[in-house]
Amino acid sequence: MLSRLSEWFWNERLWFPGDLGWADLEDRDGLTYAKTSDLWVTLPIALAFLIIRQIFERTLAIQMAAALGVKEKIRVRATHNPTLESYFRITSKNPKQSEIESLGKKTGYSERQILRWFRRRRNQERPNKLKKFKEASWRFTFYLLAFIAGLAALIDKPWLYKMEEMWAGFPMLTLLPSQYWYYMIELGFYMSLLFSVASDVKRKDFKEQIVHHVATILLISFSWCVNYIRAGTLIMLVHDASDYLLESAKMFNYAGWRKACNYIFIVFAAVFIITRLVIFPFWILHCTWVYPVTVYPPFFGYYFFNGLLFVLQCLHIFWAVLILRMAIKFLPGNNIVEDERSDREETDSEDDENALEGRKAPVKNGPVQNGHPPLNNNHHRKTE
């Protein structure tokens, strides 16, 4: 069964146009071509990235955090309470009003005490600022080096300036050493991200991140197997062009350097829009979707490759919406940037307000009924 499935999957008519096939990609006359077996190299590379990341985050990232003045806010831990802890782990991290009353009867806590306990317990599970900084600094370092390396590998290639050249002579496109290492390192890195996704900081676009990593790995692997290497290198370069800017903005944000974060984010937003919503769809996608059918009749690999590119483009649009929502914060009077994907840390004052809401009618320009001053609802929220 597996043999038949493998034979069907690697059928030449699926992946190549016309009479071309795997035999055309065999090394000969001193020329080297991409081979499917080369992809096994990415597994030890991914493992090496995981090890290097641990060393980096425990050494260089800590030094960078200290240099930028990253300070971790001390969190008040929730007092040990078996009843509330069991409810938190098994039932819900955000109890409803009726459930709060029931928990109050079991524990003898007031409503405000229960709200504050759950707030502190939820905060304990949120990643601290230093962890976020170390993760951002690791990605910043890789994306910056990858972009520089990719630009150096492509700067003298004709298909960087005239994209139709990426199909000249397809599929007999010889493999250059720079292309080999660019592919293997990029693929190994994204595989390491997929392996570590469970331990990384989880944001609201967690599922989209999984889809992105899987689509990227499939796209890079497939483009290697069927020798779409020229197109693949251009796609990787376009993606690396803006990623390091976002990670550097996060680093300055965690360090509290608001103005530096804001300026870098403006540059990132501009580069992201240009590369992901202009160059990618109107140059690269156009060249992979429109141009090949003028040379070869459409085939399965053509649709599969472009299907993965369309998935990435949909994710680009999704993230562009988040970026634009964040960009609104740069309007006059808004000087704080908050990652729309992040789970913001809660404060005691929020629980106090929630506990008081519904009990007291709002009072304007005067004290509330119990003698406490009115709560200020216009306080600035801390960024993640």
Automatic annotation (TrEMBL):
PANTHER family: CERAMIDE SYNTHASE 2 (PTHR12560:SF7), LONGEVITY ASSURANCE FACTOR 1 LAG1 (PTHR12560)
Cellular localization per UniProt: Endoplasmic reticulum membrane; Nucleus
Highest taxon of the lineage: Eukaryota
Domain spans labelled Homeobox: 67-128
Stretches for region Disordered: 340-384
Biased composition (Acidic residues): 345-355
SUPFAM superfamilies: Homeodomain-like
UniProt-listed SMART domains: HOX, TLC
Pathway assigned in UniProt: Lipid metabolism; sphingolipid metabolism; Sphingolipid metabolism
Every TLC domain range: 131-332
InterPro entries membership: HD, Homeodomain-like_sf, Lag1/Lac1-like, TLC-dom
Keyword Endoplasmic reticulum in record: yes
Membrane topology: Multi-pass membrane protein
Statement: the UniProt record of this protein carries the keyword Lipid metabolism: yes
TM spans (from-to): 39-56, 140-160, 180-198, 260-283, 303-324
UniProt keywords, alphabetically: DNA-binding, Endoplasmic reticulum, Homeobox, Lipid metabolism, Membrane, Nucleus, Transferase, Transmembrane, Transmembrane helix
Catalyzed chemical reaction(s): sphinganine + octadecanoyl-CoA = N-(octadecanoyl)-sphinganine + CoA + H(+)
Protein name per Swiss-Prot or TrEMBL: Ceramide synthase 2
DNA-binding region, residue intervals: 69-129
